[in-house]
């Protein structure tokens, strides 16, 4: 079995809530699943990550993946606690998710930052389209819950109620966990997968405007909770772009050789052709996307009729 997720950042295994949630569930149940971070959402049945690949079968969405893993004996909950656990999970999602989603995909100060994170991890040219799906989902939720569009001016974004619910939810989680290792005491459950999915990203995401992070840092037991799970289960899966780039740069320096003046001209020429071709394809794709999305508009009326003039008497004068 293989699970396809977005590559991580900030020392976390992934940047995405649903991906982090399912990865935590897999770790807690010790399911033999290989993590794949070089993933393309367009290969997923629902066009989103995560998805699970079992032989030639693909299973998308957190709920369906958990259902399949449970059917294979990888359960995170005791049967007698099923109703209680589901109730707590629904309560957390109902109160925390709206403002969590808004901070990532709705806040004008954060939206470009989040879009860049997802676009960087999505193959070209799908990186133009994929982030837009998350923005659209966020916009639909804001219109339903708060009666505003994320495209409205920032002063019209009435998020006070959502933010209050999110902070109250974090306080409630902190009170429930207390000094315990897990939400229900000394044993983990699916609730912990959901909580870690939210809190780990809130705590570590470097959003320009992260109000929930400021509040979460005041709950010291939750900070320890996140760090404990990260260290125990994701010490080897944590990822940081800056560290990866420095490591890659160091490797290149160690393996590079000085230019001797005998470099193969054919290889250089082929490399230049590939770069030019890639640039040409990128230009065409971006132009097509701009026209399709309405960013670029071309009208025949905008082209003056006398733009090109031909001097019919030119040959006679000569």
From TrEMBL:
Pfam family, one: Tom37
Entry GO CC: SAM complex
InterPro entries with a match to the protein in the record: Glutathione-S-Trfase_C_sf, Metaxin_GST, Mito_Protein_Transport_Metaxin, Sam37/metaxin_N
Compartment(s): Mitochondrion outer membrane
GO BP terms in the entry: mitochondrion organization; protein transport
Family note: Belongs to the metaxin family.
Official protein name in the record: Putative translocase of outer mitochondrial membrane complex subunit tom37/metaxin 1
């Amino acid at each position: 079995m293989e699970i396809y997720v977005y590559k991580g950042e900030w020392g976390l295994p992934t940047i995405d809530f649903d991906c982090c949630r399912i990865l935590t569930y897999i770790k807690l149940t010790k399911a033999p699943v290989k993590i794949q971070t070089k993933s393309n959402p367009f290969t997923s049945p629902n066009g989103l990550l995560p998805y699970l690949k079992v032989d030639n079968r693909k299973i998308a969405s957190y709920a369906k993946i958990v259902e399949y893993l449970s059917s294979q004996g990888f359960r995170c909950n005791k049967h007698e606690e099923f109703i209680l656990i589901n109730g707590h999970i629904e309560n957390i999602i109902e109160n925390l998710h709206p403002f969590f989603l808004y901070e990532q995909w709705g806040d004008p100060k954060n939206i470009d930052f989040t879009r860049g994170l997802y676009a960087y991890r999505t193959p070209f040219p799908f990186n133009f389209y994929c982030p837009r799906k998350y923005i659209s989902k966020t916009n639909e939720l804001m219109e339903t819950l708060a009666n505003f569009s994320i495209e409205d001016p920032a002063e019209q974004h009435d998020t006070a109620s959502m933010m209050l619910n999110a902070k109250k939810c974090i306080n409630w989680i902190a009170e429930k966990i207390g000094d315990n290792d897990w939400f229900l005491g000394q044993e983990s459950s699916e609730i912990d997968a959901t909580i870690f999915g939210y809190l780990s990203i809130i705590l570590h995401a470097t959003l320009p405007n992260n109000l929930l992070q400021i509040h979460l840092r005041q709950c010291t037991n939750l900070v320890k909770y996140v760090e404990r799970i990260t260290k125990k289960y994701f010490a080897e899966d944590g990822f940081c772009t800056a560290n990866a780039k420095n490591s890659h740069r160091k490797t290149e320096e160690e393996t590079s050789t000085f230019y001797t003046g005998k470099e193969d001209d054919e290889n250089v020429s082929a490399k230049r052709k590939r770069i030019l071709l890639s640039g040409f394809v990128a230009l065409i794709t971006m132009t097509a996307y701009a026209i399709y999305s309405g960013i670029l508009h071309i009208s025949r009326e905008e082209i003056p009729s006398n733009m090109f003039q031909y001097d019919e008497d030119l040959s006679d004068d000569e």
